[in-house]
Amino acid sequence: MATPVEPVRPGPAGGGTPPGRSRTARWVEVLTRPRTLVAVAVTVVVGYLALVPLGYLLWTTFTDAQGFSLGGFSRAYGDAGIGELVGNSMWFAVGAALLSLAVGTGLAYFNVRTDVPFKALFFAASIIPLIIPGILYTISWIFLASPTIGLLNSALEPVFGPGTFNIFTVWGMIWVEGLHLSPIAFLFMVAAFRSTDPALEESALMSGATRVQTFRRVTLPLVRPALLSAALIMLVRSLESFEVPALLGLQDGIYVFTSRIYQVLRSFPTDFAGAGALAVGLLAIAALGTWTANRFGGQGGTITGKGFRPRPIDLGRWKPVVGAGILVYFFVTVLAPLLVLLYTALLPYYRPPSAAAFASMNLDNFAAVFALPTIPTSLVNSLVLGAGTATIVMALMAVAAWVVVRSGIPGRQLLDHIAFSPLVIPGLVLGVGVAFVYLRSPLPIYGTLLILLIAYCTRYLPYGMRYAVSGMQTISTELEESAQVSGAGWWATFRRVLLPLIAPALLAGWVYIFVVSFRELSSSILLYTPGNEVLSISIWELYANARFGELSALGVIMVLVLAVLVGVAYKVGARVGLKTD
Questions:
Q1: CA–CA distance from 346 to each of 196, 358, 364 (Å)?
Q2: Average per-residue pLDDT in the chain?
Q3: CB atoms inside a 10 Å sphere around CB 42
Q4: What is the mean pLDDT of residues 383-411?
Q5: What percent of the chain has pLDDT over 70?
Q6: How far is CA 249 from the centre of its chain?
Q7: DSSP string of 296-341?
Q8: What predicted TM-score, i.e. pTM, was given to this entire model?
Q9: Cβ within 8 Å of residue 264, ≥6 positions away
Q10: Which of 45, 103, 152, 544 is surrounded by the most beta carbons within 10 Å?
Q11: Which residue from 46, 55, 132 is spatially nearest to 457, judged by alpha carbons?
Q12: Residue 110 pLDDT
């Protein structure tokens, strides 16, 4: 007689532990799974990068040798000029935000809603200024509108007298910062206008409303949330700007938060608590603006399931006028800054245009740039830091995005919030926080490239997270489930299924982070030491020494390198995208 066989009882669905095992054993098994260990490791690394500098900044600001203290705040904000400092900061930030928003919104409306000519220039006008580093863009406007050496003033002096334009004023700061931010506002508002159904505007026009009335009473309310979001983001970006206030404001004794923090940290004896107090004030304003943008700045519009294509508005007799305005904008924001850099780079010494000036042009400044001992080193440092930052951030954020979007781990949204926290920390404030950490750390990394790499990775975590999460959200879970049913583990599924599918998003994030890291100045200027300069620091030092020819030559090289690298990366990205479709 055969011995009866005990039937095999199936375990819990999903490969869990048998019911008979203890809760401790089940928790141990869950916590030791590879995906859990990887998720915990990424969370620890991201938390360290994002939160430790902020913690040290607050600790240094609110403590002294006796313990808790507000002495830094009394020194920083008890100054008689603090009212002027706050006033200048808000005047500059609000003015630059309004200018960039007005220009960007107007251009976006004409591009999406009308039959304006020269639409191909919109792409160049929105991309090229993003490639030009802020320090180069600011210096180019000094060459154009300085009251003493500006080419525009030289051209207008016979008619209006000397010093027609003065870029070293708050209005000059607003002009340069607003123009540099206008492409970002343009990209924001183009997306908003494309997502709104134009049927309401067409109905208003058919009912007898003028185009101006339709734009004011119909179009603007439709895009109001996006408009508010863009305005607040431009405001925060202007508040944290360093290059424009440092190069234009300090020349005439005009201080904003960032330039004042820089001055305090460069003075002797250094008042770390006072600098921290100013940094905390700027951080609070930036955080409030970012929170307001997230709270009230959701994308507006009338997005529906029914497709629509706006019929371009015929500009009629205004078409040549608007077309001429587009050409002027392209010249002012793109061509003029680049041409003045190239012009200065080809001159033996800086001087107004003339027949003799053009006859004296040569390539000596380009040769002199590479003869400087710091330039080859700074170029290599910028390339290494840019590529290293982009690679580390996107590798971390690829896993972090899986944790947030796919894992189902309780509390996973905390990782999302931690990764986005550096978004509210201005670059100069982040540099202060990182300096506070490693000035007191036993690790000998202060004054090395590693501290710059840590600062860059921290600053650009939010951007990498956004690219990675956006890519992860477009992938259906069915593909992962099919791989797991076929016997693939978590790592194999992640590496062979998810990574190839989100590669275009990761590459786009890599390109963006590489570009912004390559031109980074505000964090670098507080953390570099001689021998560890990056290109933006070399440009800063050349400007401080009035070596305008070599500075311009280096700027031209820097822009060309960035343009070529971005072009190659996007070509590779297009091929990757085709292979993963």
A1: 48, 9, 8
A2: 79
A3: 21
A4: 85
A5: 82
A6: 22
A7: H----S---SS---PPPBP-GGGHHHHHHHHHHHHIIIIIHHHHHH
A8: 0.81
A9: 76, 270, 271, 274, 275, 278
A10: 103
A11: 46
A12: 83
